[in-house]
Records
---
Amino acid sequence: MNMNEPAQFDTEGLRGEMLLDEPMSRHVSWRAGGVARRVYQPADLADLQVFLQQTPADEPLLAVGLGSNLLVRDGGFRGTVLLMVGALTELRMEDGEIYAQAGVPGAKLARFAAGNKLCGAEFFVGIPGTLGGMLAMNAGCYGSETWGAVQRVQVLTRSGTLIERTPQEYDIGYRHVALKQQSDELFVGAWLRFGEGDVEAAKREIKALMEKRSASQPLQMPNAGSVFRNPQGEHAAKLIEGCGLKGKRIGGAQVSEKHANFIVNAGGATAADIEALIVEVQTTVQQQTGINLHPEVQIVGESDK
Ligand SMILES: Cc1cc2nc3c(=O)[nH]c(=O)nc-3n(C[C@H](O)[C@H](O)[C@H](O)COP(=O)(O)OP(=O)(O)OC[C@H]3O[C@@H](n4cnc5c(N)ncnc54)[C@H](O)[C@@H]3O)c2cc1C
């Protein structure tokens, strides 16, 4: 453990790594944004549990997977970021279901399923997030969604109690998941069920989806995937393109020329540049079409440095 920690943190028995004033640009796919006062990467699930039990109840916490849907404002996050990736990594078969912990990346999950002759997990390959982030966002594509496969989830409460929950306990919708009762729990694992099928076809599908994505998305430049949710019956990308916004730039942030619902960091973008461009796109689309676009990306932290 780093010895420069604030005194109120009881680090007794912890085995993970604590970083202070850590630039979140290192942990989010936009490669932009402010610092987190603390970043804790637990050693494993048991270590995360001890961390939560010992952390003051008023400390703001933010779970982060691969940061592929996240922007931390330039003023930073005045609390502790919990880094799940590289920490909660268990992945195994259990009674015909896949048990995966929250830090397992989507691509690894898709390949593990195919390797166990299971079909239906192929879509995870194109989502560059962790299972925890995919559970929080109900991530999906090509007609499949994360919660479609979930049998049970494993969560840690704010005070470090480990419990299991069923999908019936959540309101689940398009890019939306919330416990029916208000709570600030963390997803730490899930049991997923997929059907048996043609594993060679699943592997071909994984390859085809990867190629399709690299043809249609600006993957060479830092981005956070689709910035806006698709409004009912509409495509956000088509609306944005129709308003002539492709290529629109504020500072280092630019509406992608390749996919209009992506904002790329074209070089040196600040979180403020990205957020200003999000607002500019919303305002223009609202004025020209009357449709309100709602961000899918999660924006947290303080505006002022
Ligand atoms: C190139 C590209 C393509 C993409 N394509 C798709 C797509 O096709 N479909 C799609 O749905 N998304 C897509 N995304 C967006 C993103 O990958 C998903 O939203 C993904 O689920 C985010 O996972 P993450 O681990 O990176 O989450 P993060 O970005 O780290 O976090 C996102 C949110 O989830 C919360 N969170 C993360 N982990 C946990 C946890 N363990 N417990 C509780 N809350 C948690 C965070 O606090 C934050 O609010 C794409 C992104 C990129 C960059």
---
Amino acid sequence: MKISVVGTGYVGLVTGACFSDAGHEVMCIDNNPKKIEMLHRGEMPIYEPGLEEIVKRNVEAGRLKFSTSVKEGTEFAEVIFIAVGTPPGPGGEANMTYVEQVGREVAENMTSYRLLVEKSTVPAKTSEHLKRTVLKYLRADTDFDVASNPEFLREGTAIPDATNPDRVVVGVESKRAGDLLEEIYKPILAKGGGKFLRMNVTSAELTKHASNSFLAMKISFINAVSRICELAGADVEQVAQGMGLDPRIGPRFLKAGVGYGGSCFPKDVDAFVRLADALGNEFTLLKEVQKINKTQREHVMKKIKQELWVVQDKRIAIFGLAFKPETDDVREAPSLYFVPELQAMKAKLRAWDPIAEGKFKEIHPDLETVPDLYECAKDADLVLILTEWDAVKNIDLAKLKSVMACPVIVDGRNTFDPATVRAAGFTYHSIGRA
Ligand SMILES: NC(=O)c1ccc[n+]([C@@H]2O[C@H](COP(=O)([O-])OP(=O)(O)OC[C@H]3O[C@@H](n4cnc5c(N)ncnc54)[C@H](O)[C@@H]3O)[C@@H](O)[C@H]2O)c1
């Protein structure tokens, strides 16, 4: 089947590449000409393990192409996925400018039936706005459908997530739209397994809000437990293991740390809180989830201040800038809180990240970064771990100690076993391990 995907970011490019790998003919569109030029040259505009090979394979097979023109994409395919960004607006609500823009351009250019699919994470009821937009700008006398197909992939494991989904949720208003989407996903589900769930559009939109908010709640829950552990003399890792073996709870997303970040959880929880407020039904539980996430960072900052006493002029080595390992994405990453806060206290910062350094420096060009962990820690008074990259997990502790001015680690990710690090001669502060 022919498919267009508008927006070639973390979601759109992965989705388009995986659809083409499943045998469909795909056009990926982006209005950022630099991204499309890179893709034409065979370069990836984002880092995602395994993506480059899939893109290359399908471009060579003639199943995947790129364009900057939504008009071209509208002419090319009957089904058009919208995977543009929906970043938080000035008041925290999701900014729908890009989604609307694509809806308008598709409407102006379609001459026969088209199915517009919301792949971006959007507030419930967006499909109604999108439908009104299409009707306003439609020039031809033709039918169309708007559907919701929320995306659940995770950066860092986006390819296995997209090729082997637990479930595919589609919200549709017509049998035609549902059948088209089922046909698109048939080869993927036949190979990878997973359930195809057909529901109404608002339920599909809400499924995404509810899923991400639930996962964020699990993280905030264990972070709240971690603070009790510190006060009560328990070990949150052991508590989480004991909880997680209960299949009703499950072990995932029970990792205490510096708090959740990334382009999804903070924005999606916020959007759900606002939706509930707008509907006149305050979601107080989620407001608490947000509060715990914010105070968790402050709690880690307190550990740094208590350890250093005077922060000014202290050398702090930051290990990890990405919001999690295996991605170059720094949106809402904890590093974006710690770097300016520590800079304001006049600490001397040096950071290391194997992939996200470039994206971070687009925001904070003044941060000194180095390509080697030991060079980063040279003469440091404290190492702050913000991303549990494998290179950090596997660091040679004796060598690390030998290059530092003071062997102190504040570990925002519980990367190490406390006994091992302390035996290596470090003062070690982690999360929820008294
Ligand atoms: N990143 C994730 O892990 C993830 C997971 C699930 C869902 N989502 C959701 O998917 C959506 C996309 O997220 P992302 O991380 O891929 O964003 P992104 O910023 O990486 O990519 C969005 C792309 O859309 C392009 N774009 C914007 N307006 C356009 C237009 N009018 N025409 C053509 N292209 C346009 C941008 O240039 C950009 O390349 C968001 O709603 C996000 O919440 C993201």
